[in-house]
Specification:
Blueprint: H1 4-16, H2 24-27, H3 36-47, H4 50-59, H5 61-66, H6 70-91, E1 94-96, H7 97-104, H8 109-121, E2 127-130, E3 135-138, H9 149-173, H10 177-211
Antiparallel strand pairs: 1-3, 2-3
Helix pairs in contact: 1-6, 3-4, 3-6, 7-8
Length: 212
């Protein structure tokens, strides 16, 4: 029987790696009740809701400590904030750092500024920060499919396939030098054997003449 501790840890590890835990984990009839806190954590992470995340963490802290998952869960806070930042960037073209801090339930606008700057640096969001006026401004993501990048990628793949095809044709037409050398060695060996055979015949004939 799978324990709630191992199932909970599996779900947390998946979330920490940026994956969504398998829903079947939370639907097990024997573990559904004990995994309820982990389900609520998962929902908070996916929504980027730091308030709900903190609330679940506080409510079930005893269970998490008892099952040894508290350290893993604390690491998820960064994932919650990152998801929240992405959600805000999609919803607002411009938003003050004060409002970001309030929505993410951070301690100060300075904390929000630091987190936004890190998200921009890591490529999580396309945005810029106006430090003087204290707001974040998002930018439209570049649609790579409207650029020449797909064409270049396809061209490189086609060229690679053609190179393999051409090399295969050459290999079929012109065997490697070692193959030719082996053929020459075999031919020389046959010639040498033929010479030895003729020499043996000559000796046998001479011996027959001597006997006569």
């Amino acid at each position: 029987v799978v324990s709630s501790q191992s199932s909970g840890s599996s779900g947390i590890n998946a979330e920490y790696g940026g994956e969504v835990p398998d829903r079947l984990i939370f639907r097990d009839a024997h573990l559904r009740l004990s995994l309820q806190p982990y389900l609520q954590l998962t929902q908070a992470v996916l929504a980027g809701d730091l308030g709900s995340f903190s609330s679940v963490l506080e409510r079930y802290s005893e269970q998490f400590r008892r099952e040894g998952t508290m350290t893993l869960i604390n690491r998820l806070r960064h994932n919650v904030i990152k998801t929240g930042i992405k959600s805000i960037a999609l919803s607002y073209s411009r938003i003050s750092l004060v409002d970001v801090a309030e929505k993410l339930q951070l301690d100060s606008p300075e904390d929000a500024e630091y987190i936004i700057a890190k998200a921009i640096r890591d490529g999580v969001i396309e945005a810029s920060i106006n430090h003087d006026k204290g707001y974040m401004e998002t930018h439209d993501s570049v649609d790579v499919y409207r650029s020449e990048e797909p064409l270049k990628a396809y061209h490189a793949r086609i060229r690679f396939c053609l190179d393999i095809h051409n090399q295969s044709i050459k290999a079929m037409r012109f065997p490697p030098k070692s193959y030719n050398d082996s053929l020459e060695d075999a031919q020389k060996q046959r010639e040498r054997e033929q010479q030895d055979l003729e020499y043996a015949k000559e000796i046998a004939e001479e011996e027959d003449d001597g006997l006569l």
